[in-house]
Amino acid sequence: QELRPKSLDIKQEELGDMVEKEMASTSEAIEDAVRRIEEMMSQARNESSGVKLEVNERILNSCTDLMKAIRLLVMTSTNLQKEIVESGRGAATTQEFYAKNSRWTEGLISASKAVGWGATQLVESADRVVLHMGKYEELIVCSHEIAASTAQLVAASKVKAEKGSRNLAQLQECSRNVNEMAANVVASTKSGQEQIEEKDTMDFSGMSLIKLKKEEMETQVKVLELEKRLEGERVRLGELRKQHYALAGTYDAVEDGEAKPAPTPRRGILKKPPLAQKP
C-alpha cells in the first residue's frame, strides 16, 4: 500500500475533474508568471540603470517570450485533449473516458503539473537574479526543466491523438517554439552574466580616493609579479631552445660519422634508347 502512487487513492470518477482543474491551474500559474515578470520589469527600470538595466531587460524579455510560448502550448494541449475525448469516448461520458484510461490521464495530470511548476520556478529565479540575490545558473536549469516538462506533456498527449490531427501538429509546433524560447533564455542569461561580471571588475565609480590608491598599488604589485614571472618563463624558453639545439647538433654529428648509402643519382629527362648495331 505504501508503494502505490498517491494518485491511485483518487476515485476514478474524479480523474476527469482533476485533468480540467490541473490544466486550469497551469494556465493560471502562467498568467500569474507573466504578470510578475511585468512587475519585475517595471521595478528593474526604477531601481537599476546602465548595463544592469540592459541585462535585466534582456533576461526578462526572454522570460516573457517563453511564458507566452508555454501559454499557447497549454491552450493547444487543452484543445487536443478535448478532441481525443470526443473521438474516443463513444457513448460514454467524459468522466467515464478518463476513468477507463486512468494511466494516460494520470500521465497527463503529471505533465501539466510539471509545466506549471517549471514556469513558477523560472519566475522566482528571475526575480532573485534581478534583485541580485540569486544565481544565473538557476535560470538556466529552470529553462532546461521547462523544455523537459514540455516534451513530457507532448508525449502524453500524443499517445491517444490521431496521427493526422491538426491540433497534434500544432502542439508539436508549440513544443518546438517553447524549446527555442527556452534556449533564448539560456543565451541571454549567459551573455548577461558575462557582461555583469566584466562591468563589476572594471567599475571604480563608487570608490573613494584612498580606496582607489590602494587598488592602484595592489594592481602595480600584480603587474610586477606577472612581469617577473613572464621574464622567468622567457629565460626557461631560451634554455629549452639551447638544449634542443645542442641535442639536435649532436644527433646530426652522429649521423655524419656513420656510413651512409650513396645518394641516388637524379634521373635526367628520359631519352629514346639508341638503336642496336648490326653484328
From TrEMBL:
Residues 7-248 form the I/LWEQ domain. GO terms for molecular function: actin filament binding; clathrin adaptor activity; clathrin light chain binding; phosphatidylinositol-3,4-bisphosphate binding; phosphatidylinositol-3,5-bisphosphate binding. Pfam families: I_LWEQ. Transmembrane segments: none annotated. It comes from the Eukaryota. Residues 253-279 are annotated as: Disordered. The keyword Cytoplasm applies. Keywords: Coiled coil, Cytoplasm. InterPro entries: I/LWEQ_dom_sf, ILWEQ_dom, Sla2_fam. GO terms for cellular component: clathrin-coated vesicle; cortical actin cytoskeleton. Residues 207-243 form a coiled coil. One of its GO terms (biological process) is clathrin coat assembly. It is found in: Cytoplasm. SMART domains: ILWEQ. Its main location: cytoplasm. PANTHER family: HUNTINGTIN INTERACTING PROTEIN 1, HUNTINGTIN-INTERACTING PROTEIN 1-RELATED PROTEIN. This is HIP1R protein.
